[in-house]
Design goal:
heterodimer; A: 552 residues; alpha+beta; Beta-Lactamase; 5 domains; five-stranded antiparallel β-sheet; 21% strand; B: 223 residues; mainly alpha; Methane Monooxygenase Hydroxylase, Chain G, domain 1; two-stranded antiparallel sheet; 7 helices
Chain lengths: 552, 223
């Protein structure tokens, strides 16, 4: 803009300069011949009286004029010529002479045959009817104009030189207010009214932009909070599988750094075969599902293209617990059917033999005893399963009483004392008065199962010690035995249903494999924790730590 | 033109990562096959090698096309020529994995002997090197590439230790006069050698990564 205004100024000045020069030149071109004619007329006026006094030649000499003087008689014959000594032809047909004969005065600018040059003529009729003609070469006027030319050139150059800084200054003054407009508060600095609409518009636009930016930021923060709070991994990718957006969960699941991952493509971030095939399936079908294992966790991947087709969304969810739970349920079902079938096979086998009369009547009580034992086993199994499923469904939380744990333990010991005596095991109880909040039946079952196990998996002559104690705001129940112990590799799994450290599932002990599972559930119901300390061949101590009555 | 070229480079990168992922999986699976002696899994590794070979040819023609049609210069040229060299090493790693798996599929005659202690370590170390070399390529990380190149010595040392171990086993058999299963010992030596070779190829890959990023190959500036 500055350059343009500046150049416009310069151009304007040059054009005006050139025009005025041309004007001056044309004025000179018309004025100078007139000046010459006036001079010639003046000379004529001076000449006429002298001619009358002393004749043509003398008058001319006296005048000391550079002009050509011609005296022409009334018939046109040349009487005298100051610059030509030869005989000249009749001059009556010359324009200026002709006019002078007619009107008394004539002037002309034309080519002279005599002098072979352009001349300015002024002819005057004298009283005697002859004509006095003075002439000056036109060259004179050209010389006069020429003498003015250097001044003109000097003027023009001076004009341009002077106009350059002036144009620069004016341009600057025009531009400065525009440059100085403060776009943040345009009203304060505005100089040109013509700019008001433009500046207003810019101002409005700026305000709009600010608002939109703020709204956008808010939305972004909302989205961040939303995605950040998500448990699932969320990844938004574009058509080239470049990551546009990724939340913290996804980064944790893929084991990557969030700031690093931004803008990387998925294969760059994770090139597991599962992921690559998911992406190619996504391209082919528009959506894809897959599984991925990483760091011992199982993830379900699910990707689908967004409607506009400009990208896709990838969701990653940690399904480890679900998958493990499913596996556990499957194992449980298989175990239940197996455990139920074993006694049933025995029962139906013996019953069939009796039915077919293949058993001697003396043996029937024995067989009946076996059938009875197996039926009881089956019954207790079914009872345990029912109890467990009840615990699974969740015991009603409401009915909790204060229960004296030591009393429950004492009565459990009493009822199991005959069993212990059978196996030649000493069962002792020792304990402080302890109080827990919970369900008496459940606690009884927990204790019965623990003590029962301690007796069952004991050695003849062994000991079982049951103890309750208060430790601060906690109540601790321990059941210690001097039994066979549990191998370390089984210790984490014995609380699973039907799990037995004894792989042969020996019937000798007569357990259902559900006892400790019930213990675990009962403990969980009471917010208690179980700890296990066992040395194979030396014994096992199971401690259950309850929150005391006061803390509840 | 440049946009199209960029797209083609991106495609090439994707293919390279895919191939890298395939060989990573192959070498990992191979070491799992070794520890589990699972013949079925071994067959899968052997079959997987075909796909790696196919990928190699695919990337090769892609690189050549890029070189001919786009006449790349500077870092683009380095990247493409490095890719062209890398796939050869990658393909070799795939072959080694298949070879290891093939040994496992062979029926064992006689008593099954335990693998040398350091063999599993070699497998883990080699798989880690391959993984890191591919990582270095993906992230264009010259420092990581250097780390891989330097860790080649570890695998070489482990190879020596496996050899020592095998020699000891042989000696004890000779001393006790028991009949040793020599074929199994030889197979174990072969497996160890394949791992050692794979580690070498991983080192090569890392060297080409270093070249692609810095222009230096084995410490020398290539122009």
């Amino acid at each position: 803009m500055r350059k343009r205004i500046f150049l416009s100024f310069i151009a304007l000045i040059i054009i005006f300069g050139a025009l005025s020069s041309a004007l001056v030149a044309s004025i000179i071109a018309t004025v100078v011949p007139q000046q010459v004619m006036i001079r010639l007329e003046d000379e004529t006026r001076l000449l006429i009286p002298r001619m009358a006094e002393s004749g043509d030649q003398a008058a001319f000499d006296k005048l000391l004029s550079t002009s050509r003087i011609t005296h022409i008689a009334a018939d046109g014959t040349v009487l005298f010529d100051s610059q030509s000594s030869q005989e000249l032809d009749n001059h009556a047909d010359r324009d200026e002479v002709k006019r002078a004969f007619e009107t008394g005065y004539g002037s002309a600018v034309r080519h002279s045959d005599t002098l072979k040059a352009n001349m300015i003529y002024v002819a005057t009729r004298l009283e005697d009817g002859s004509v006095l003609r003075l002439a000056a070469p036109e060259r004179v006027s050209a010389e006069m104009a020429g003498s003015m030319l250097p001044w003109q050139i000097f003027g023009t150059v001076a004009l341009i030189l002077f106009s350059l800084p002036l144009a620069a200054v004016i341009t600057n003054r025009l531009i400065r207010p525009i440059l100085e407009i403060d776009l943040d508060s345009p009203d304060d600095s505005l100089v040109y009214d013509e700019l008001i609409p433009l500046v207003r518009r810019i101002d409005d636009q700026a305000k709009l932009n600010r608002e939109q930016l703020e709204a956008l930021n808010d939305r972004r923060q909302e989205l961040d909070a939303l995605l950040g709070g998500m448990h699932e991994g969320f990844v938004a990718i574009d058509r080239d599988h470049r990551i546009i957006l990724i939340n913290h969960s996804a980064c944790d699941m893929l084991g990557i750094d969030r700031s690093w991952a931004q803008g990387k493509t998925i294969p760059e971030v994770n090139r597991r075969q599962e992921m690559l095939s998911l992406l190619s399936e996504l391209e082919a079908q528009g959506s894809a599902e897959g599984m991925m294992e990483r760091g011992g966790r199982s993830y379900v991947l699910s990707a689908s293209k967004v409607e506009s087709g400009r990208g896709s969304v990838l969701l990653i969810s940690d399904q480890t617990d679900k998958i493990e739970g499913e596996a556990m349920r499957k194992r449980f079902t298989a175990n239940v059917s197996h455990e139920l079938r074993t006694p049933l096979t025995t029962i139906s086998g013996y019953a069939e033999m009796i039915e077919k009369g293949m058993v001697k009547s003396a043996d029937i009580p024995t067989f009946g005893g076996i059938i009875l034992r197996e039926s009881k086993r089956l019954l207790s199994l079914v009872e345990d399963i029912l109890r467990l499923s009840k615990l699974d469904e969740g015991f009603p939380r409401g009915k909790r009483d204060k229960v004296a744990l030591d009393e429950v333990a004492k009565s459990a010991c009493e009822s199991l004392r005959p069993l212990a005596a059978d196996k030649d095991i000493s069962l002792t109880f020792e304990g402080e008065d302890t109080c827990v909040t919970g369900d008496r039946t459940l606690l009884d079952e927990l204790l019965m199962n623990l003590i029962d196990n301690a007796i069952k998996y004991n050695q003849p002559g062994g000991r079982v010690e049951v103890n309750t104690s208060n430790r601060g705001d906690r109540v601790i129940l321990t059941v210690a035995d001097t039994g066979i112990g549990i191998e370390p590799e089984h210790q984490t799994r014995i609380f699973e249903r039907f799990y037995r450290s004894d792989k042969s599932r020996s019937k000798a002990t007569g357990g259902t494999g559900l006892g400790l599972s019930i213990v675990k559930h009962a403990a969980e119901y009471h917010d208690a924790t179980i700890s296990l300390d066992s040395t194979p061949g030396q014994g096992t101590t199971i401690s259950v730590t309850f929150p005391g009555c006061e803390t509840q | 033109m440049r946009k199209r070229f960029d797209e083609q480079l991106l495609e090439l990168n994707k293919e390279m990562i895919t191939m890298g992922s395939l060989i990573e999986q192959a070498i990992e699976n191979a070491s799992q096959v070794v520890s589990s002696r699972n013949v079925e899994a071994a067959r899968i590794v052997i079959r997987g090698d075909m796909e790696i070979d196919r990928k190699e040819r695919d990337i090769e023609s892609r690189c050549l096309r890029l070189l001919l049609m786009q006449q790349p210069v500077a870092s683009d040229l380095r990247l493409i020529s490095a890719a062209l060299k890398m796939i050869t090493d990658m393909e070799r790693i795939g072959d080694q994995a298949a070879d290891i798996a093939e040994i496992i599929t062979m029926p064992v005659k006689g008593e099954l002997m335990p693998f040398p202690k350091h063999l599993q370590q070699m497998a883990t170390e080699t798989a880690r090197m391959v993984h890191q070399a591919i990582d270095a390529y993906v992230t264009r990380d010259a420092a990581l590439a250097r780390e891989v190149i330097e860790s080649d010595d570890v695998v070489d040392q482990l190879f020596d230790e496996v050899k020592e171990e095998l020699l000891k086993i042989m000696n004890t058999y000779i001393k006790t006069g028991k009949h040793a299963n020599g074929m199994q010992l030889l197979d174990m030596l072969m497996i160890a050698k394949y791992y050692e070779r794979s580690a070498d190829h991983a080192t090569n890959i890392a060297e080409w990564v270093e070249y692609a990023v810095t222009g230096h190959l084995k410490g020398e500036l290539l122009q």
